[in-house]
Amino acid sequence: xxxxxxxxAELIVTLGIVLLLLVAHQLWxxxxxxxxxxxxxxxxxxxxxxxxxxxxGSPADGSGGAAPGGAPEAPASGPDPAAGDGRPDAxxxxxxxxxxxAYAVLxxxxxxxxxxxxxxxxxxxxxDRGYVGHxxxxxxxxxxxxxxxxxxxxxxxxxxxxxxxxxxxxxxxxETRDALYTYTVxxxxxxxxxxxxxxIAPVPRSNVTPSVGYAEPGHYLTLTTCTPEFSSRFRLVVxxxxxxxxxx
Length: 248
Fold this sequence. Notes:
Layout: H1 2-49, H2 90-95, E1 102-108, E2 113-119, E3 132-134, E4 145-150, E5 171-175, E6 179-192, E7 219-227, E8 234-247
Parallel strand pairs: 2-3, 4-7
Antiparallel strand pairs: 1-2, 1-5, 3-4, 5-6, 6-8, 7-8
């Protein structure tokens, strides 16, 4: 009996250690690896483009940049905000963006975020690498419609962990090979269901809470992530409007 109790205690201790290692891997190691990968990708893009934008972005009020213009895109069926199908849309193929390949850099000064943007929202090739994923079939940066993005809130770099801290008027920049686009935070939806595809529609408006969103075509940026933390039950949404464009 004593030997059996001792063996059981050893198994329990071993199991506890394994569980602690798994938690450490998820909460620490995946963040470390993903952030390192994302950082290398951002630096590679900056070298390819000839260095980061020296001005750090156009003013949020639109001074120093061209005013956005153009007609809105035709509405398209939006993907599930929880995940995309990973296939580049037509605009991505035309602009050179390919699945799992970073083609833009997202910067949010309020939460000290700099992250690469890649096409698609697949976990293995995009989100788990610490990247921000572009929802396929939504607009590209600066284009009329809705440039919709997803990012992890916890583990794997957790780039969108603090987007709940964003407030109206905060600046968000998206840098590509050709231009720097400045968006200004306008609205947010604290909680909706993963199936609420209206939040990433060309004219974003929640299907679950129709009073939240927009009624007119424009140039929108949407950020989506899981909520509450360490759960994927709901989605947190932040919307911004294009306020300035500056060619590189």
